[in-house]
UniProtKB/TrEMBL annotation:
Membrane topology: Multi-pass membrane protein
Residue ranges of every copy of the Major facilitator superfamily (MFS) profile domain listed in the record: 18-466
Alphabetical keyword list: Cell membrane, Membrane, Transmembrane, Transmembrane helix, Transport
UniProt record similarity statement: Belongs to the major facilitator superfamily. TCR/Tet family.
Record field: transmembrane: 18-41, 53-71, 83-110, 116-136, 143-163, 169-192, 204-222, 228-249, 270-292, 298-320, 332-355, 361-386, 407-427, 439-461
Record flagged with keyword Transmembrane: yes
Main subcellular localisation: membrane
GO cellular component: plasma membrane
GO molecular-function terms, A-Z: transmembrane transporter activity
Protein's recorded name: MFS transporter
Subcellular compartments: Cell inner membrane
PANTHER family: MAJOR FACILITATOR SUPERFAMILY, VACUOLAR BASIC AMINO ACID TRANSPORTER 4
């Protein structure tokens, strides 16, 4: 078990240095999710390969997604600390290589290295928080972690613009090096754990099958309809091959002595429901972040900066509500909190359907903010409920499963919403505003439909008093 539970919470408490290390580690991934978007044109001006730049995002998401379940299992086997340190080191190495890249293909490969590191940093940070804080304490700790994402949603685009315009786009990646070094040092110095040191046989076959199968499926979803047609040989091979690999993976895991992704995660209602909620959250977020800027620029005629700030309302609404979610679920329970968040998401998406060519950016931003508020009230309580239902030796897998579902949902969202828009526009290079309005409204309608499904998923979440004694005591 990790550090003994203390009564005080906050950065000045006995566990404060560990919390600070978790926050700093989280900031690496949070900043990276926003800082690069503002520098795409500057990067492609120097390195070329404008047509390849979507791979900067796809390859990162792919590498992160397929490694998350593996890190979760390893964290339950050897402890959180070594896995976290490896993730920070890999992220830092990828950042250094990205900062030194001299061609677009090289930058894409090095972004994959970054993604491999991020696959450990995100879930293990949440797992450590689950280890050292009780459910009641995490209600307060969540405000600290949410502040990291809130700050990054504002600071990331600002730093990206400053670096790319006044210094060099390379510092978008190199800035991670001192942050990673400080985060690793703080974890080495302050976080101690007495993880079980039993000898485990690592399920290499299962890990390989999961990586290849999930990787093929996510890649097919990310690039289908964009890099290649949905019915193309490449798309069919990836979908079929991924499905076969995952089927074989399931058979292997049933017989494995120490499976990399235990099949019991699919038999626990709370884990399945929280993962479904996470998948829907990922799809909703990607749908809006992909098409709100397009609507703002192509229909409302705003500039790139204004469009970015508009969708920034979405990423700001999330941490604002997530910081208060703990107080809410301690008072009314996990289920009611998640239902309220889902309803907010439906209302926000419905308000976006009322936005047209005569609307203002404020109307678009307010709708995004409401959806973001809803997501903050869903994502945190559902993850914490799942964590609280698991023992120490299972918590890494549970956390990783939830976060893998969100990555998968992001890929599904890209595929579904991209297909809806392309079907409406018919592959036009630069659509007219009159055509873009109904096409993007399909995205808003899809987001609303997913939010309705989210209400149903939240409705079968356990109340605070159900399940693990830790939940009951909260």
């Amino acid at each position: 078990m990790a550090t003994d539970v203390k009564s005080s919470i906050g950065l000045r408490s006995e566990r404060g240095p560990i919390l600070a290390a978790i926050m700093l580690s989280t900031s690496l991934v949070a900043l990276d999710s926003t800082i690069i978007a503002t520098a795409v044109l500057t990067i492609t001006d120097q390195l070329g390969g404008f047509a390849q730049f979507p791979w900067l995002f796809s390859i990162y998401l792919l590498a992160q997604a397929v490694t998350v379940p593996i890190y979760g299992k390893l964290a339950d086997m050897v402890g959180r600390k070594p896995v976290m340190l490896f993730g920070i080191a890999a992220f830092a190495m990828g950042s250094l290589l990205c900062g030194l890249a001299t061609s677009m293909p090289a930058l894409i490969v090095f972004r994959a290295v970054q993604g491999v590191g991020a696959g450990a940093v995100s879930p293990i940070s949440m797992t450590i928080a689950g280890d050292i804080y009780t459910v009641a304490e995490r209600a307060k700790v969540q405000a600290y972690l949410a502040s990291v994402w809130a700050t990054s949603s504002v600071l990331g685009p600002l730093l990206g613009g400053v670096f790319s315009q006044y210094i060099s786009w390379r510092w978008i990646f190199l800035i991670n090096l001192p942050l990673a070094a400080l985060a690793a040092w703080m974890i080495l110095r302050n976080f101690t754990e007495s993880a079980p040191r039993q000898r485990h046989r690592i399920d290499y076959l299962g890990a390989g099958l999961l990586t290849v199968g999930a990787g093929a499926l996510i890649l097919a979803l990310l690039e289908g309809g964009q890099a290649w047609a949905w019915g193309s040989p490449a798309s069919l091979v990836l979908f079929a091959g991924g499905a076969v690999m995952l089927a074989v993976f399931g058979l292997v895991e049933r017989r494995a002595a120490n499976p990399i992704l235990p099949l019991w995660v699919f038999t626990r209602r709370i884990v399945v429901v929280s993962s479904l909620a996470s998948l829907l959250v990922g799809a909703i977020l990607l749908g809006l972040t992909s098409y709100v800027p397009t609507f703002a620029q192509g229909v409302l005629g705003s500039g790139a900066l204004s469009a970015g700030l508009t969708v920034g309302a979405l990423t700001l609404g999330w941490p604002v509500s997530a910081s208060q979610a703990g107080k809410v679920y301690l008072r009314i329970g996990f289920r009611a909190t998640a239902v309220i968040g889902s309803v907010l998401a439906v209302l926000g998406a419905a308000s976006l359907l009322l936005v047209d060519a005569r609307s203002s950016l404020w109307q678009l931003a307010i709708g995004c903010f409401i959806v973001g508020m809803g997501m903050g009230l869903v994502a945190s309580p559902t993850l914490i409920a799942a964590q609280a239902s698991a023992e120490w030796s299972e918590r890494g897998v549970v956390t990783a499963t939830n976060m893998f579902a969100r990555s998968l949902g992001s890929a599904v969202g890209v595929a579904v919403f991209g297909a809806l828009v392309n079907a409406r526009l018919g592959g036009v290079g630069r659509p007219a505003a009159a055509d873009l309005v109904p096409a993007v409204h399909l995205v808003f309608l899809g987001v609303a439909a997913m939010a309705v499904v989210l209400i149903a998923a939240a409705a079968v979440m356990p109340r605070r008093s159900e399940g693990n004694p830790e939940i009951h005591s909260a």
